[in-house]
Amino acid sequence: MSDDAAREDACQEYQSSLEDLTFNSKPHINMLTILAEENLNFAKDIVAIIEAQIAKAPATEKLPVLYLVDSIVKNVGRDYLEAFTKNLVTTFICVFEKVYAF
After folding, report:
1. Rounded to the nearest 10 degrees, how much is the dihedral formed by the CA atoms of 41, 90, 18, 56?
2. Which residues contact 50 (CB under 8 A, 6 or more apart)?
3. The pTM is what?
4. Distance separating the N- and C-terminal Cα atoms of the chain
5. How many CA atoms lie within 13 A of 49 on its CB side?
6. Which class for 21: exposed (0-12), middle (13-18), buried (19 or more C-beta within 10 A)?
7. Residue 102 pLDDT exceeds 60
8. CB 98 within 8 Å of CB 62
9. In terms of pLDDT, which residue wins out, 85 or 100?
10. Torsion of CA 76, 45, 65, 99, to 10 degrees
11. Is residue 77 classed as helix, strand or coil in its secondary structure?
């Protein structure tokens, strides 16, 4: 499988699983964290998927995705830590403005 095909498959699988994270589910967050670790070579792509999910998720679904970010940074670190750092302030503002607005 080519690198582009592997990247596309990994990103599609991650996106599909991430869309199911609609409430605070530790097992689901753990599974997504493991999936992120297994796809460490696509960390920038997965971070972009997670950031996009935070931006588009309804207010009630933003915090679980932020908990996922926390889990990945704490348990995987490495490339994910660097990639999340770039937009971390914007991501937090997006979550907290929406979650605490209602």
Report:
1. -130
2. 18, 65, 68, 69, 72
3. 0.91
4. 47
5. 23
6. buried
7. no
8. yes
9. 85
10. 130
11. coil
